[in-house]
Each structure stands twice: as C-alpha cells, then as structure tokens.
Amino acid sequence: MSPENSQITFILFSGAFLAALMGTFIIAMVILHRQRQAENRRRLELIQAEYERTLLNIENEIQQETLSNVGRELHDNIGQLLSLAKLNLNSSRAEKNQEGKELINQIIQEVRGLSKSLNLDWLESLSLDDFIRQQLQRIQTTGFCQTSFESDQSLAILEKDQKLVLVRVIQECLNNAIKHASPSSIRVWVSNFSLHIEDDGAGFDTSLPSKGSGMTNLKKRMETIGGTFSLTSSPGNGTTIKLTLAN
Is residue 32 part of a domain? Predict the structure, then answer.
C-alpha cells in the first residue's frame, strides 16, 4: 500500500473512530438526561404526594377541632339556652312565654350556624379576617382572656390551600396560648402580608430543647405554602408568633 493510501486509510479510520466516539458520547448524554428527567419527575411526584398528604391531615385536624368546638357549644351554650327557654315556656306569665319563644329562635340560629361549620365549605366563603374574629370572639366569650384584632387586609385574597394551612396554624397557635401561657390578653394583627399573634402570658425560654414537635410542624406547614414561621418569647414576657406569606 502506497504512503498516500495509508494516510487516507488512517484518516478514514480516525474519522470513523471519532464519529463513533462522538455518537457514543451523545447517546450517553441522552440516556443521562432522560435518567435525570425521570428522577426529577419522581421527586416532583414525592413532593406533590407529601403536599397533598399534609393538606389532607390539616383538613382532618380542622374538622376535629370544629367537632370539639361544636361539642362545647352544644354543652355550654345551647344546653343553657334550652334550659332557660324551658323555664320561660313553662311560666304562666305571658312575657316569660314570649322570652321563651325568642330564645327558641336564637337556639335555631345557633344550631344552623353550628351545622354550617361542620362542612369545610365554610372556609371558601369566610375570609381569613372573619375567621380570626370568630376565633377570638369564642375565646373572649368564655371569659378566658381579652382579645383584639386589627388588619390591613393584605391577606384578604388567598388560595384555598393557603387559607387552609393558615387556618390550622392559627388554631394551633391560639390553642397553645390558651393551654400553656395563661395570658390575660391575646392580640392578633395582620400587616404587610404577615400575621402576628401576641400574648402576655408566661412565655418560655426558646433556647431550651422543645418537649414536642409542635413548633417544627407549624414551620413545615407554613413552608408548604411558601411561607415562614417565627417565634419570639422569654419567661414572663409572653410570646409573639409571626406568620408571613410571600407577596
């Protein structure tokens, strides 16, 4: 074989080798890309499943909290009104009978309100501000402590999932204040896409290890809707919680 033919053969073999190498590289990159896409899809599916599981748990907890509230209302409020209505209706005095009838009408309205609260559809028609007012009114009506609420309505428009999570987090924060802080007042205010819950109760040392996972769970739940949870407290100086959504 002449030198020229040998050179041509070498060039052809080299070109074929480089083409094969390039083809192998491209195929490997395509396979790797598809593997990464599949892995990303699996991660997204896991994240979505965890998100949906969190929302389902929150719905169940809200329903359980609602049932507890309904039970307390039936025992403490409706039961008392029924007893009073019975006494008035059994009276021989006309004005007492009239008072009894008015109490029956009040009881009917109270029961209708309770029946509506058993369905989570009320969340769609109730604004977050109105929900907070209801919760604080319930606390104050029991005589547990004084409450106050102010809002700039920056959280007036929320996605259903955002409202669902916020409702449950607010319920849990208020319950914690009632159970553990023994405050004389609870103040809630909404400002610049943040919700603040402040009590003047016992407070606690935040540097000490937490006895439970409550605060961690609240932080995770706020993170599921792109929000943040922060808490400041010290013994004897009450507790302030801040819930913030991205604006």
Answer: no
